[in-house]
Specification:
With 363 residues, this protein is mainly α. It folds into two domains: 34-182, no CATH class; 194-260 and 269-363, no CATH class. The chain contains twelve helices and no strands.
């Protein structure tokens, strides 16, 4: 029984939980290390995302005999130009819309409350209106009101946190440049600790992890950008208020598979409900439907392909569980972490099959 995979995995999990338990009980010893880890985690994460986004450009430049320092310099200039364009062109209207939204937040919350109460009052006076449906609508109204208030608070907190963590983001360029310069040295540094077939296995596993992360980050950001462009064009055509702010919010939310687009749809629907034109809600729903259908039928299959090979139900389950455990950061990191874990387990399974097959041949 001790040679069974399930037994070994169970023992490993129990040992890991035991180590974690004692680690939490003597956390005062590791407190400085945890503080350092928390300090560098976000800059390292952002630096890694920037690296995977710009890595195709680096490969393109170096294939044309441009030296490493030249490709890094070109990438840094390109990133600085994009940031400058964003701040100078998109920054002022975004700040203006944020200020208008913050000023209008009490009015928006009041209007939502009034319209919700009017709708509920009309429905409650109908004789054929079921009591259970009444309770359900009442809960939905409360949820919509909460979403409106929370959305306004999130916008304010987001921009406050940007300024509060500005000093941390100073580290991002250092990690970014380091990854651009020495990213090929990371994998050899790890697999050179091993030898023989084990070294080959570790090398293949690291390569697969890198492929999964690159595919996910590049693909998900490209999908978010395309969806944001489709939604922005649609919002401009119908004249929806706060269109640029809603699209920027949708861009970041669309990074979260499946659930993200629905999170981005909620504030747009609320703004549409408050518009004097009653057809605005219909137009927002149509634009969202067009964007989602374009994504599910054209964009995601061609960009992401079957590299991740994760079922939608698994994605939703993992995201919800990670959100309950680690909040918004857990939601963002849950799918790539799950994909990396799946790659590792798959390679372990393949390696065990090879060992068993070789043992059978020797017998």
């Amino acid at each position: 029984m001790t040679k069974k995979l399930w037994f070994q995995a169970g023992v490993g999990i129990l040992l890991a939980l035991l180590i974690l338990k004692y680690f939490m009980e003597i956390n005062w010893i590791f407190a400085p290390l945890l503080i350092i880890a928390k300090t560098i985690f976000v800059p390292l994460l952002l630096g890694a995302v920037l690296f995977y986004v710009t890595e195709p450009l680096q490969r393109f430049l170096e294939k044309r005999k441009i030296p490493r320092w030249g490709s890094i310099l070109a990438i840094l200039i390109s990133v600085a130009a994009v940031v400058w364009l964003f701040i100078s062109i998109i920054g002022p209207p975004v700040i203006n819309q944020v200020n208008n939204l913050v000023k209008s937040a009490p009015y928006i919350a009041k209007e939502i409350t009034i319209q919700s109460e009017n709708l509920l009052d009309v429905l409650q006076h109908r004789e054929d209106f079921p009591e259970q449906l009444n309770d359900m609508i009442d809960k939905a109204v409360n949820s919509v009101q909460s979403i409106a208030v929370v959305f306004g608070k999130l916008i304010v907190q987001f921009f406050q946190s940007v300024f509060q963590t500005a000093f941390t983001l100073i580290l991002v360029p250092f990690f970014f440049i380091f990854l651009l310069k020495d990213h090929e040295k990371f994998a050899p540094f790890i697999y050179n600790f091993f030898s023989g077939k084990r070294q080959v296995w570790v090398k293949k596993t690291l390569h697969d992890i890198n492929t999964v992360l690159r595919t996910y980050i590049q693909g998900q950001l490209l999908i978010s950008l395309i969806l944001a462009a489709i939604m922005f064009i649609g919002y401009l055509i119908i004249g929806l208020d706060y269109s640029l702010l809603l699209v920027i919010f949708a861009f970041f939310m669309n990074v979260i598979p499946f659930i993200g687009p629905w999170i981005a749809f909620a504030p747009a629907l609320i703004i549409a409900f408050l518009d004097p034109d009653p057809q605005m809600v219909i137009w927002v729903c149509i634009i969202t439907l067009v964007a989602q259908q374009t994504d599910s039928n054209l964009i995601t299959p061609n960009i992401m392909g079957k590299t991740l090979d994760i079922h939608p139900l698994t994605v939703i389950t993992v995201i919800l569980a990670a959100g309950n455990i680690a909040g918004f950061l857990g939601i963002l990191l849950s799918i790539p972490a799950y994909a990396v874990g799946k790659v590792i387990l798959k390679n372990i399974y393949d390696r065990r099959k090879e060992i068993k097959l070789a043992a059978t041949k020797n017998v």
